[in-house]
Write a structure and sequence with these properties.
It is a single chain. This protein has 348 residues and is of the alpha/beta class. The protein has one domain (83-347): Ribonuclease Z/Hydroxyacylglutathione hydrolase-like (Metallo-beta-lactamase, Chain A). It has 9 helices and 16 strands. Helix 8 packs across helix 9. The N and C termini lie far apart (43 Å).
Amino acid sequence: MRPVPRAALVPILLAGLLAACAGVGGPKAGAPAHHAEGGFRNPNPGYVPAPAWVRTKFFLSRIWGTTFHPRTAALPRVENDGAALRENPAKDTVTWIGHSTLLVQLDGVNLLTDPHWSERASPLPFMGPKRVTPPGFSFEHLPPIHLVLISHDHYDHLDVATVLRLAEVHRPLFLVPLGLKAWFAGLGITSVEELDWWESRSVRGLTLTCLPAQHFSSRTFWDRNRRLWSGWAVAGRAKRFFFAGDTGYYDVFKEIGSRLGPFDLAAVPIGAYVPAVIMQPAHTTPEEALQLFEDVGGRRFLGIHWGTFDLAEEPIEEPPKRVEAEARRRGIDPDRLFLLKHGETRRW
């Protein structure tokens, strides 16, 4: 790869400075609390993002660091050729492909969460967060994919190349939060259902519900919070799956547990929490992830959003260690923890 001239970064860095100050308006009269003038907002009064200059400084340092001084990690992987999953008509399984990408099999339906098979979580092929661990499962080895759940529009969760390939090869139904249907239409993808928080759809015998999360959205420098962010609940004949998406912690998860729980499997983000002043309003620490898990009534905990892209400043290998320590403190049976290797499959 040819080195990127520093001068070429100046427009990007200046745009980042402006973007940190951009946003939508205040609450929208007569609308749900998370709706804002021109977009969406976090209704939790405790949600206080870092000042714009702090976010800008971090944004620029991460671009520079991940492009010119990338970290590495030697995390174990499972060689999974997918044969058992392609031949599986009925067993309920989950496979961690990496980051927030899961292959979930429930009641004979194959669904993916936040699918991402590209090398970088970035709009640019030559800069931004690069994989530290390859996908644990080859795209070519996927069984037929029926459904895809998208939590929000950030580049580590919504990858253009991957969704285009899925649409071409598998033609699944994409379920997305408000504001993203038009984005998919711009790619020529029309098999898309768009939901607001607490709205549900029934598809292939499953009930899928779009859920609140505490985060933000942006795809460009000018569209911060124009599209909604969410988690998802999936209810089958006898089992329930919870996907937190990307979120900070607040008390809405108790309401989710009360209304839709308990959940047989809860996938919760455990990475990207340092520095706290930047990350914690919109990401859970490992300790908060377990509190969230208990709030929603989870029976098995699946740690996601770690060990794949270098997005924050904690040691890449640290999140599952902190989960295990916090689980011991809380008296949670370690057999309830799914801290998977990339490519690993478990029954649930």
